[in-house]
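subagent[fold] <- orchestrator: predict structure for attached chain, return tokens only, no commentary.
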Amino acid sequence: MDGDGLRTTFAWEDARSAELHPLDGERINIFHEAVGHHVEEGRGQDLAIRWLGRDGSTRDLTFADLDDLAGRFAGVLRDLGVGRGDRVFTLLGRVPDLYVAALGALRNGSVFCPLFSAFGPEPVRSRVGPGKGRVLVTTAQLYERKVAPVRAELPDLEHVLLVGEGTAEGCIPLAPLMETATPAPTVPMDPEEMALLHFTSGTTGRPKGAVHVHAAVLAHRMTGRWVLDLHAGDVFWCTADPGWVTGTSYGIVAPLALGATLVVDEADFDGPRWLRILEEQRVAVWYTAPTAIRMLMKLTPDQLGEHDLSSVRHACSVGEPLAPDGVAFGETLLGTPFHDTWWQSETGAIMIANLPGAPVRPGSMGRPVPGVVAAVVERTEGGVRPIDTPDVEGELALRAGWPSMFRMYLDNPERYGKSFADGWYLSGDLARRDADGFFWFVGRADDVFKSAGHLIGPFEVESALVEHPDVAEAAVIGKPDPIAGSIVKAFLVLRPGVEGDAGVERSIRAHARKRLGPAVAPREITFVDHLPHTRSGKVMRRLLKARELGLPEGDTSTLENP
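subagent[fold] -> orchestrator:
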């Protein structure tokens, strides 16, 4: 594919009629785009998912299998009185039931809302509660540890469906319901009806629910083809967990819509295992995170071993900026460079990328995909002003109107309105554009940071920390780390009379891991006598970060997440 050849005027409306498969007039459904139309067109026996269990077991699901199972899950929802617009949350690892629940919820006209299985009770509560979740699909073990402690604070949660072994009070085993359910038909949806709800962290306030509609599938499909170079029959591996937006948009929807086969690995990162999967499954296209790439780069020659990875024709990265040495490592490992991509929960799909067939500019995010207009802008008194001069830093903005653009922050119209100005979506990321139109990431405009590809809002972590009886005040930053990109570091002011000894630190760490989960809990804790504040009372996290990194306290240019 010639990446530069795609840089022509592109009309989303023209693509809609050519690419999508309406159910009833103009009405569509993401499930039908991902699964149903393949079955209708005689490709039901094509392999849709190859699941690899952590114990070495495998399970294959064809498009016809997914059609039947998702239909049964939709039937279960229908029998429970759960219907159009109702929110169905999942709290699961990468198991087949998660994919069935996602597709079945969409088929039913319900809204799919994924949660990361490493979340603790507080992140679960702060998402399922505001999201008005009626249904949660999880396991007995995850329920007891992460949901039961906050269930009383979730008044809208009527049904908890358990997969796998085990039972829990107030929950319903899903397997017997699936066995007896009659597959429900796919519900035709208005393209602007809600389909997906992804929560994203912020520096202040609770996580924000970014709402995406069924029309988003057009952007998933087109960027899957343009950026990931996916075609029917390709074996595709997206290593992102479906608890995050990447694992939904490109770990479920886009590849299935294009007829590719998903490789799904239940296990966590294991370098030698990953290399075996690439070789044994003959993966053609690989989408992974810079954190994983850096971890692979640290493997010894013995750990890397000898593998035939010639099947991999295209590899991409997502989640945080990919350094030039990571791009080059792709050439060494795979014979093809890693192509970096940029997008957000709010954009719903890839917006800027190093396209296949075009030269990769190492360290760059790439250039906008067709149909996307991007600019570096400066905020003004009444709006924004695009910066036309190359290599000048500003805020990365996108011209509003692409299909997967989020339609609202759930129940927060004021915050949504502040995300736009003069017809531009303001990403909150700082960037520069060079003379050739390539964009380069500089940092975050606020204090949100990424750790191992997970977007973390300081406020959520700080709120959990101050619940500990010994903690009077907390401030959280992202501390640069060569593997994870950033780690969560907390600065804590203890209550009068409490000594910051090892026992207190262990107690606080245990509390944080229980409330937040290991992915969000602080990796480092420092006790301080006081925190720096602005005159309005806000904690000066950038000042803390400057002191932590030994930078001049007035210099903020290098304080962002690298």
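orchestrator: received. Logging for downstream: The radius of gyration is 23 Å. The first strand starts at residue 47 and ends at 52.
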